[in-house]
């Protein structure tokens, strides 16, 4: 069967598109390699820059799933704000060039243990809940639908998160200002 | 023209859009450098500016590009080679992504979706990473200080920039830039619809905040602490030479053009001219030119301010953002929201 024939067959069958699966694999590969480099590199700035690739990959996966709003928010919040603050903090405190041997310390065993545990727990939870669900993406998610859901169905959760973030913000200022 | 476009396949339309993007970035950057940086400033300082290459020095740009291309691409010995070399491309990528949301006419757009201005604000923040990469990767104190100053400033002024846009979004009831243009074209001022309703009239506070924050985002004087030449040489660009410096330079001026275009779309009616039907096919050709004209006017203001005012101190600069612009922008949102509900 020709590639376009496969695409048409799978599209009509309600499966995920072939092209989407191919791109998912490519982006996932980039993400996995970047994530491994992020924790194995001995240069803190390089680690933050590898993390940019992981987060950008996550944004790209969201676009493949048709969730444009989540993808753009991922870029705005994680790449535009959090990574920039990481880099800013690293460069203000110790911006040493080259490798820093004190980075990969003796906590490596504990860290990998926690990481494996987290992966297993999350993996089991995801497979248990969604292994029978098939995702059908007919069209990109509407921006307005997201805000409608947030401000009607999930309004209590949304306001609770806002208050929590505000409290964290004020707490950070109080802690930082204590002479 | 529409019939012609409809017959083209996806890759042909994509190629046209790619070419249009390249032309937009290079043409706008070139025009701004020649008209504003070479000529306008020279006239402000009672001199002629470049006059030798071509009539009135109009070919000076080609001479400059030739000069930069010939220069050696120097990487400092202690620099982080890959990060140092990649930084200008990250900054330029941000500029190109920013361009993508701009509409030039009813059918002359790169992408059009509901994200619009939200997408623009998200990708504009990516350039900060490029600037930090340049500042750190150069392994130079001047560059690092410049990079840190630039980051502090860009974070501080991103907030008023975003908040200034919210007023327009509330009034237009959409984030889609194409629909914001149409909302202004079809709007009426107390029932008088002859010139539409450009949002500069109702959102003047938002426009003023946007222009000030834009000046800071572009690190143009009086907000040029990051590249303060008397203390930091040229900040994060200090160690760059040849082509990579040229990329930073193009990025700076193209970003000035693209930000001005976003301001023109949000506040001045974008590609629309009063008196014509906004669905007219004519606008697919006329629209980009109209938008370009508005960009030239807005960047004229940017460079006029740049060459008129002295530089802010770092603390004055931060105070202006956090204690004046942010509260003003929030007040503007509240007033706009109340009026939107009441009227």
Your description of this structure?
The complex is a heterodimer of chains A (179) and B (343). Chain A is mainly alpha-helical and 179 residues long. Chain A has two domains: 13-141, NADH-ubiquinone/plastoquinone oxidoreductase chain 6, subunit NuoJ (Four Helix Bundle (Hemerythrin (Met), subunit A)); 142-179. Chain A is built from seven helices and no strands. Chain A is globular, with a radius of gyration of 21 Å. By secondary structure, chain B is mainly α. Helix content of chain B is 68%, strand content 0%. In chain B, helix 4 (81-99) packs antiparallel against helix 6 and helix 10 runs antiparallel to helix 12. The model of chain B has no long low-confidence stretch (mean pLDDT 84). Chains A and B meet through helix 3 and helix 4 of A and helix 5, helix 6 and helix 7 of B.
> What is the overall number of helices of chain A?
7
CATH topology heading of the largest domain in chain A = Four Helix Bundle (Hemerythrin (Met), subunit A)
Number of strands of chain B: 0
Q: Tell me the number of strands of chain A.
A: 0
Task: Please give the structural blueprint.
The complex is a heterodimer of chains A (179) and B (343).
Chain A: H1 3-12, H2 18-40, H3 44-64, H4 68-93, H5 108-130, H6 143-151, H7 155-177
Helix pairs in contact in A: 2-3, 3-4
Chain B: H1 2-7, H2 10-44, H3 60-70, H4 81-99, H5 117-124, H6 127-137, H7 141-172, H8 177-186, H9 199-202, H10 204-217, H11 229-232, H12 242-267, H13 283-306, H14 314-342
